[in-house]
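Contributing new complexes? Match this layout with dephospho coenzyme A.
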Amino acid sequence: MLKIGITGNIGSGKTTVSQMFRVLGIPVFYADIEAKNIMTTDPVLVANMKKAFGDEAYFTDGSLNRKYIANIVFNDDEQLAKLNSLTHPAVFRAFDTWVAGIENVPYVIKEAALLFESTSYKMCDYSLLVTAPLDLRIARVTKRDHITRAEVEAREAKQFTEAKKRELADYIIENGETQLLIPQVLKLHDAFLQLAAV
Ligand SMILES: CC(C)(COP(=O)(O)OP(=O)(O)OC[C@H]1O[C@@H](n2cnc3c(N)ncnc32)[C@H](O)[C@@H]1O)[C@@H](O)C(=O)NCCC(=O)NCCS
Ligand SMILES: Nc1ncnc2c1ncn2[C@@H]1O[C@H](COP(=O)(O)OP(=O)(O)OP(=O)(O)O)[C@@H](O)[C@H]1O
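Output block (do not edit by hand):
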């Protein structure tokens, strides 16, 4: 069973693409969702998060105060490194456990915003980058999340550039306004099926 890592900079459409693979019957592990899940369910991690970022990192009902944490970490490299060091090992373990429970599929997908930065692409057989022009990504994300252009740019600045990711990626999906998404996904699905059959 192959492991395919899907990534892309903020608002590139990686979740949209991953959902298309899911419709084709491919199991998808969403690392970013899992990270947030673990941050509220793992008692040791919750304690460490509060120690690192204060009690305000959580609302009184135990849910994650994402806006508060994002405001801290995307404006301070040291704090971001701290958050990554707390969450990434736990997400790696969760992915391994998830994979171990899956059988009878040709491949699985790990969708991760930081596939390259976290080095987790090395634990996948192939990587797939979803790209779109920066202005289009900003327009899509500010519409979806009601966050500002400056907030998007702050996150963008903390990640590898798209140029660097293009060099690292085995496959690329162009999700701008000139190419249709579905035919690209179907073509790659066929390619992954063939690779899995070898
Ligand atoms: C800081 C948090 C709470 C902000 O939550 P929010 O819902 O606003 O953002 P969301 O998780 O949907 O991420 C949106 C985009 O932000 C960027 N981003 C998220 N985490 C990071 C990070 N650690 N470093 C750089 N960019 C990041 C990515 O482009 C991502 O696609 C959240 O992103 C988080 O918990 N991040 C740490 C976990 C992590 O490293 N996730 C990535 C695992 S691969
Ligand atoms: N080809 C497209 N045409 C129109 N809208 C799109 C397209 N691709 C993605 N979108 C929209 O753009 C927004 C961002 O897409 P998506 O959530 O898939 O990106 P992402 O890379 O997972 O984002 P994030 O980095 O914030 O997690 C969503 O609202 C999505 O519906």
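Reviewers usually confirm one structural detail per submission. For this one: The first strand starts at residue 2 and ends at 7.
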